[in-house]
Write a structure and sequence with these properties.
By secondary structure, the protein is α+β, with helices and mostly antiparallel strands. The chain has one domain: 3-Layer(aba) Sandwich (Cytidine Deaminase, domain 2), CATH 3.40.140.10. The protein is about 20% helix and about 40% strand. It is built from two helices and seven strands; from the N terminus they run H-E-E-E-E-H-E-E-E. The chain has a five-stranded mixed beta sheet, covered by helices on one side. It has a two-stranded antiparallel sheet with strand order 3-4. The longest helix is centred in the middle third of the chain and has 14 residues. The chain starts with a helix and ends with a strand. The structure holds zinc ion (ZN).
Length: about 110
């Protein structure tokens, strides 16, 4: 799954991208969020928020962690990232260095934002 996550985030560069690590019954999968993104922020359309809520309720799926990228290499969650706590207490952040094309993966808990 980590290859799929990285590919999704890299494909959106130089803009941010996002997804969710989700669980259903006994398997875990990556859900790509169709976000509207810039180089420093992203947002989900109200339509898709409703769609996702319905999916969670109908399929018995749960969100284990949010995932998103910072293409500007910024480490640490931003003030805007605080709203991710609506989805999960756990957050994976992938910070890309566009010059060296390397990346750093960090893990955050909502209460530390
Ligand atoms: Zn962020």
């Amino acid at each position: 799954m980590s290859g799929e996550v990285l590919a999704h985030l890299q494909q959106a560069l130089p803009n941010e991208a996002a997804g969710l690590v989700m669980a259903r019954s006994d398997y875990i999968f990556f859900y790509k969020l169709p976000v509207l993104a810039t180089r420093v922020a992203f947002q989900l359309t109200p339509d898709h928020v409703l769609k996702l809520g319905t999916r969670l309720a109908e399929n018995g799926e749960v969100i284990l962690s949010t995932v998103h990228s910072h293409p500007n290499g910024r480490l640490g969650m931003s003030a805007l990232d605080g709203s991710l706590a609506w989805w999960s207490n756990d957050h994976l952040l992938v910070s890309f260095d566009l010059v060296t094309t390397s990346h750093v993966i960090s893990f955050y808990k909502s209460q530390l934002l």
